[in-house]
Amino acid sequence: MVHVLSYKNPSLGQEIMGHSKISVRREHFLSGFTWMTPSSPSCAHADGVKKLKGLKYRNMSSQIVGKFSQNSQDISQEFQLPSAYESAMEALSSLITQKKRNGKSVISGQNQKLDRMLRYIKILGLEEKIAGLKIIHVAGTKGKGSTCAFCEAILRECGFRTGLFTSPHLIDVRERYRLDGMDICQENFLQYFWDCWNQLKANISEDLPMPPLFQFLTVLAFKIFVSEKVDVAIIEVGLGGKLDSTNVIKEPVVCGITSLGMDHMETLGDTLGQIASHKAGILKPQIPAFSVPQLSEAMEVLQERANELMIPLEVVAPLTFEKLNVTRLSLSGDHQLSNAALAVSLCKSWLRSTGNWKRLFEDAYEEDHLPEQFLRGLSAARLSGRAQIVVDPLINASGGNKRCSGDLTFYLDGAHSPESMDACARWFSAAAVERKDLSLSSVSSKVKTTERAWTNSYIKHCHNKESDEILKRILLFNCMDARDPQILLPKLVDTCASSGIYFSKAIFVPSISAYTKVTSAISTVPSYIPGKDLSWQFNLQRIWERTIHGKDVLDQNLKINASAGLPPREFLYEEVSHRGPEDRYFACSAVFPSLPLTINWLRDCVRENPSLRLQVLVTGSLHLVGDVLKLLRKV
Questions:
Q1: In the record, which residues are listed under signal peptide (predicted)?
Q2: Which residues are paired to 183 by β-bridges?
Q3: pLDDT at position 224 over 90
Q4: Mean pLDDT value of segment 626-631
Q5: Which of 22, 69, 484, 631 sits 20 to 30 Å CA-CA off 492?
């Protein structure tokens, strides 16, 4: 099942949350488009723009506050929330100790990192309280976030107060912390944030500096969940497992391992066995453990660790459609059947270990059927930026039946490893065809097969003769330089081609997000940064053109003018013979100088041609996916 952020959907709250009893308030941040925010007595300012009457941030760092309130020494005065929130983002940014993702941390020694984590927790008085959180701890390479989202939704449907900690965030850091399925509100976030910040700041020393970013965010998660008295905390490992900041959890209720693959090799090792060893580090004595099926090299390591701890490691088979009993998973893709199955096993184990299974179900459900609460949870879980479809609200906001412009639909998936790229390609191949058929059926009752052709190593545009619609599939791509695009791009092309799906064009663009700065949903987004280094994007373009043509068509020594601007909109329709290297773009691909300019260019293309339908796959980086979502939200 594909969940789409749709225009003027009156049931959007229930569709996203999957729970009719959850109270939500709607915010109109887009013309004719509805975004959901929590409505809670303790979070009455959820719109993030109302002035907080009487709210005193006495715990806020005076140094940070001084940056936006220079006219007063009294930090207990009233502040407008956006300014206060941006100040918290500045404070978080100061904790970033690496210049890039694969850089070396200032704090050396991973064991020392965990020792320091324990000291931070003790300073905050959380040492004993963490044991009462009744934690589900999940590690893995792929599917960690999905599995955790399924777990949260299932147990919330069972009536429990849930806390969910995941990473990374896409638009706003508060996405990492969910309470009862909703992102923590700004007011509560700021209260917990500055409480943690000031207690830690007051206790720093030469051998105990402020924690790096992810360690602080992890400590903050424990603080939030303890303070909010959640019944269950679902904790996603950040990186690896054994030496991850979350592994200060000594006695979780149950542990899970999702699918393992080759990722973060600069930290975890360059073999599957080494990576599996890190993931197995979250397993604990006398704590039930579950895993999805793994390649033999990984499974041997997991099983060996389980044997050392004298615990059974149960391997969970993917769910079947029969067991789902016509329920459709809210997260799309066949790979989600494995993630959902692991979540089901983790939740069953949690319910039994905490004495809640018999109370809720009286052993009425065993192997053959899933409880109704489980099925509702599996159909309601949400996770932004993974197999997500967003119909551009600006283009599709015009009322009436008259069609004034074409269609622009974004398919977003933050795949950045070979395995996840394969899953992304399979999802897009199915979803793009499904959406095409839905759209064409609304135009004509009789739809002919769309014509596809691969001629001279390029794709002709898909033109449906019956509806007179032109369908273009566009790749919008970027990845970190720690990734290997020579593996990712061919994997994407080949997997899509095996399903008969081809890209008309590929656009390579730099992300907006910087690894050295934490921003929020209200942060300013520059449309263009002059002098931006696009050498990495040109490298991606060379790999793409080589993948499509089977040979190098770009001179490695060619100095392409990065400031030449955007290609004309005719580029979308042009054939190979019409362009050359001197034009900076080719029939198959182009480098655009900024993401906001790219989005506007795509919008202009569909505005001027009502017959044009663009399906844009955004992938390669969660940063890129988050940036696109932020831009769509800021319309």
A1: none
A2: 178
A3: yes
A4: 94
A5: 631
Question: β-strands 469-477, 462-464: how paired?
Answer: antiparallel
Q: Bridge partners of 178?
A: 164, 183
Quote the CA–CA distance of 569 and 142 in Å, as a whole number.
37
Gap between the Cα atoms of 583 and 574, Å rounded: 13
Non-local CB neighbours of 424 within 8 Å, separated by 6+ positions: 333, 387, 413, 415, 492, 617, 619
H or E element in which residue 612 lies: strand 612-619
Report how far Cα 627 is from the mean position of its chain's Cα atoms: 11
How many residues are listed for the chain in this entry? Answer: 635
d(CA 32, CA 396): 9
How many angstroms separate the CA atoms of 147 and 298, rounded? 19
Structure tokens at 319: 């769910």
Q: Which residues of 116-145 are buried (b: 16+ CB within 10 A; e: fewer)?
A: bbebbbebbebeeebeebbbbbbbbbbbbb
Mean pLDDT of 155-172: 97
| β-strand partners of 233 | 135, 163
One DSSP character per residue, 99-163 reads SSTTSPPSS--HHHHHHHHHHHHHHTT-TTGGGGG-EEEEE-SBSHHHHHHHHHHHHHHTT--EE
Pairing between β-strand 232-236 and β-strand 135-139 as defined by DSSP bridges: parallel
Pairing of strands 162-165, 177-179: antiparallel
pLDDT of amino acid 107: 40
Q: Which residues contact 382 (CB under 8 A, 6 or more apart)?
A: 3, 16, 17, 18, 149, 153, 330, 331
Token pair 């395995």 is found at: 419
Residue 389 — φ and ψ, nearest 5°?
A: -115, 130
Burial of 161 (0-12, 13-18, 19+ CB in 10 A): middle
Which residues make Cβ contacts (< 8 Å) with residue 388, sequence separation at least 6?
3, 5, 411, 412, 413
Work out the number of other CB atoms within 10 angstroms of the CB of residue 281.
17
Alpha helices in 291-390 (DSSP H): 296-309, 321-324, 336-353, 357-361, 372-378
Whether the predicted pLDDT of 483 surpasses 80: yes
**Residue 292 pLDDT > 80:** yes
Is the four-CA dihedral 44, 46, 51, 57 of positive or negative sign? Answer: positive
DSSP 3-state of 469? strand
**Tokens describing residue 364:** 């009425």
How many contiguous H segments (helices) and E segments (strands) does the chain have?
19, 20
Burial 410-422 (b: 16+ CB within 10 A, else e): bbbbbbbbbbbbb
Closest by CA to 395, choosing from 386, 404, 387, is 404
CA angle, 110 as apex, 104 and 112 as ends, to 5°? Answer: 120
Higher confidence at residue 558 or residue 336? 336
Q: For residue 229, what are its two tokens?
A: 């008295």
- Which residue, 239, 55, 242, 229, is CA-closest to 144? 239
Give the containing element (helix H, strand E) for 464: strand 462-464
DSSP-derived pairing of the beta strands 612-619 and 289-291: unpaired
Dist CA 429 CA 413 (whole Å): 13
CB 590 within 8 A of CB 584: yes
What is the pTM assigned to this prediction? 0.81
Nearest to 78 by CA among 177, 202, 187: 187
